[in-house]
Structure of FAD dependent oxidoreductase domain-containing protein:
Amino acid sequence: MASPKPSEQTSFLIVGGGTIGLSTALHLSDRGYKHIVVLDRGDSIPSSFSAGNDLNKIVRAEYEDAFYATHALSAINAWRTCPIFRPHYRQTGYLVASSSTAPPKVDSHISRLIDSISSHPSYPTSSLTSLPSSAAVRDKIPQLTGQVKGWSGYFNGHAGYARAAPALRALYNELLARGVKFHLGTSGDAIAIHPDEETARFFPAPKPYLRTADNNIHCADVVILAPGAHTARLLPSAGAQLTAKAWAVGHVKVSAGEAARLKGLPVINCRDLAFFFEPAKDEGGDTWLIKVCAHGGGYTNVPENTSTSIPPSNAEENNAILREDEALIRRLLLEALPEFSTRPLVRKFVCWCADTADSEYIIDYVPGYENLVLAGGDSGHAFKMFPIFGGWVVDLVEAHAQKESRWRWKARESDGKEDIHWRVGGVKDIKETIRKGDDVEAARARL
Ligand SMILES: Cc1cc2nc3c(=O)[nH]c(=O)nc-3n(C[C@H](O)[C@H](O)[C@H](O)COP(=O)(O)OP(=O)(O)OC[C@H]3O[C@@H](n4cnc5c(N)ncnc54)[C@H](O)[C@@H]3O)c2cc1C
């Protein structure tokens, strides 16, 4: 059941000041709402628990599904024009390819991406170049020093990447300036919803309040849950439709001279191996880094005697990657930028998001409560929507109901192991990383 239509006096409590939570706060503020409080368990924003707290994220509009392509084109427009986001967007272009060993699924996915985007009425089709051979890939992107043997795909000039952590920080600062209140660390760590879902069944649509780790209580006219991969910890029923999954990330240090040579490099995404970006520095940092992220089906973390994947509470467990993933990363470098393929990978970690079985977001009221909203199910593709995602959450609250059926709360059970049509590889459990360890030498030996 939905809460009454909001007014300027309506109070909003957002749990999670990550990609979706901050975007929601922005759109609430843009539409004139004055009473906005954000809780985040991180000690600062961007939070160390946020999937968006990263050097960079791809911003592109190719989706097999024109629905998301349309939204992503709007998001790109916002990245290019909105003063908060514009400084953090780099329109370097985007190369999508398959390697010589890609399964057929990858090439058919790439064909559907090309069909979808090239027929989209708002896409500037002159930005798309077909690259049917490795020679065509090398001609288009001369900074690639590798042979890219057997690669084929396309280049999209109307795409690029966002400097993710600085974009989150910029919006955080903007929200502070607008009077949005934040509770961070222990005082922002929501540990329980009252009444919990079991108890809520015995009341007619209760209004929930949140208890934080400092034992304080927070309530509001509308409570919006946006804790990303951590959602099922707070709201166990969401675990039936959201699976916390992680992917491996590593970085290669490069010199200032190497960074200068690679300046303007498009995002290189070999869909069956991994993807990497133009070298970038952390804010205030002096080290140039190439971020590389492995593809695959992702990791889950299903604790013993449970059936729901949630990110490990011990952050240390996230600071290792499987040797198979390191091998994917190294093979991509060997094929595209071989001079970096044997350099140590630094800052290795796994990054968690909330996957749904059909990769659809979930933006809806939580059944059983009067005014509790879930904004999540990012499925690994929500950062690009950072400038606009919150608008959909505010639309929901103002309309009292989710008109877009694909974003509704889904009662259906997901075991998190479904074959996601645009991903390659099976789902593994993160406990494997602990058992196998961070075996770099073995990964190298496999190349
Ligand atoms: C490896 C990897 C690569 C990706 N690459 C891309 C890409 O190139 N392009 C793209 O568009 N998307 C990409 N994504 C997806 C993108 O990062 C996510 O879709 C997006 O960040 C999800 O936003 P969110 O707000 O749901 O979660 P998050 O950004 O994770 O935010 C959740 C917030 O909730 C807080 N929180 C959690 N629990 C609590 C609690 N109990 N109380 C208070 N606060 C809490 C956390 O501290 C965090 O700040 C990638 C994801 C991964 C994993």
Observations:
- The first strand starts at residue 11 and ends at 15.
- The chain is about 25% helix and 25% strand.
- The chain has a mean pLDDT of 93.
